Amino acid sequence: MTVDPSPPESGPSAPRPQTISLDKGAASGGLSTDQTREGGSSPWADAQAAAASVGSAFQSGVASVQAQGDVAQKKLVAGLLGIFLGSLGVHKFYLGMNQPGIIMLVCTVAGYLLFTLLAIILIGFVFLLVPAAVGLVGLIEGILYLTKSDADFQREYVVGKKPWF
Prior knowledge:
4 helices; mainly alpha
């Protein structure tokens, strides 16, 4: 019985595969399962090596597809984090870039704190301007009252009820 372990290749220059005879007393010159080729390896070892190389190529291809899927997922998540939480640097932390993430986080928090303090100061300053302006009006009117004669003061402010200055 003759067994051909590999399918024949098509084409005129394709080498004819060796046949292996499983009969113990084969006189056809084929190799028995216990015999080896001239190179020193058995046909089964060659087949196993070929299968291992195909298997490793398949595994590297699968790893490549998985890596591409991981990259696509990382890109999507990092992009969405950048859009929605970008000022806090969350996308940088997600990508493992801690120093830029910390810089963005500190700048954002410091900016909000400074804005809050300045807003309080400016709004407080505006509210302090109102009493200061009213106080200035009172100072000016007080000076005007003191510089007027008694008759002018009586006529304008007591009898005439002049509201301002």
